[in-house]
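Consider this today:
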Amino acid sequence: MHKLVLPFALFAFLLSACCKDDNLLVEILLPHSPGGITNCDSSKATAYAGKFSVPAYLRDVALSEGSKVLLASQDGLYWMDITTGKMLHQIESPVAGKAFSNTDALYRNGDLAAAASATGLAVFNVKTGELMWERALGECDIDKGVYGVGDQYFVTRHVPDAEGIVADAVFVGNLREPNRLDLLFTPAYSHAHHSWAGYGRITSLTPFMGADGHTYVLSAYFETQASSNALRAFMALFDVTTKSWVYERQELTTASLIIIYNSVQQITVRGTTAYLSWMGKILVWNISSGTVLETISMTPANSMQDGFYGDLLVSEQYILVKDNNAALQVLDNATHQPLYSIRPLSGTLRAAFDLDRLFVTNWDRIDVYEISTGKKLETILPACDQFSDGIVVWKDVYGTTHVAVGNGSAIKHYVLQN
């Protein structure tokens, strides 16, 4: 293990001589900055090169244990204490490091978590930083993230046919069974046409536990059409417990040519319903029947125009929608009526519903809002360098709210003033 604690302290001391943040507790210099990977053939798979960077380090708060967090470089995993800046544990593993660098592709259950990159899968203990097992995969093999229920995790992979034409399929593994990764299902693509996306792609995947105790996977997918920039979009529900379809081709539109950007990119499941971003609207989806319960349209003044490109965050009280007009729309989840909007909004979002806080990370600042009122509470400005979009938020035993955020090649740990 490299002794990196001294460089962390030295870096913090030198930085303090030229830069000072009023509510900064500690700054951690990252052991290595991860580089990109070779772009994949766009006709076969989606490149992940843009994912491997410092901004991805802190995107998933589920990785943190108090003030501890797992970081990664292309060389391995680093289990660190954000409060003190000390490195507690290091594992040198290019597969695990590269996998964890994309925290969009991560699922945690208890002490274990699975991370996936375009080239590998790794399972590790999030409390100790210990690598449990890992496996290499083919370049650009994993298309979406890692999702799960209990010890089961799910990923999508590009599967080629005999002629080399690909289509996405869903695979299932187990956190406690090394290297297990079995084909679960392939969506019911028509196979009539193929283009840059092969026969079709899965755009969103959400597994959940049903009231009957069964594990289900709700997915959105599209199949390609004769035109290379057109598709047809469908919803599907698979019963993992019985290995059977509940429904597999519930089409969201009867039109045969739909522009690619209007595919369903996000699904948020709450109870027996799901919220889908679709065609500039929010669809409230009846999961069991596969039908639309309600369509929430944006008003003309804050229309999402032809498509939806931003985040969809849902709690029991609120629906937060980042539209393509650079604004955040906040709706009442009981009435679906608009409450207020925040604009302009060009950064990335992190909602801590339990703390009634919304964090908007831009390159040059973090704006902190009260979700219930839309009031801006404070702005955190970096003294040196620029913020990335990764952020972790937590409360300590004294009720103080802490924020850790990527800042260039370092991580800054702040205490909120409100």
